[in-house]
Design a protein that fits this description.
This protein is mostly helical. Helices cover about 45% and strands about 10% of the residues. A three-stranded parallel beta sheet has the order 1-2-3, with no helix packed on it.
Amino acid sequence: MSSTSQNSGSKGALALSKAFKTNPTLTTLNLQRKEIGYNEAQVLAETLKTNSTLITLNLGINQIGSNGAQALSEALKINTTLTTLDLQSNSIRDNGA
C-alpha cells in the first residue's frame, strides 16, 4: 500500500471517528475492503470506546493485523453495544486472536 493510500485511509478513519461521535443513530457500518490497517483500527477502537449505538461493524478483508485486533479488543472491554464484529481475512495471528 502506498503512503498516499495510507494517508487517505487515516483521514477516512478520522472522519468516520468524528461521524460516530455526532451520529446517534448509526447502528451498522460496513468497511469491508477499505484498506484499513493498524493505524485506522486504532482510531476506530478509540471511537468504539465512547460509541453507544453501533451494533454491527464489518472490517473484513483489510490489513488490521494482530495489533489492530488487540486495539479493537481493548475497546470491546468498554463498549457494550457492539454485538457483531467481522474481522475475517485480516492477517490476525494467534497473539491477535
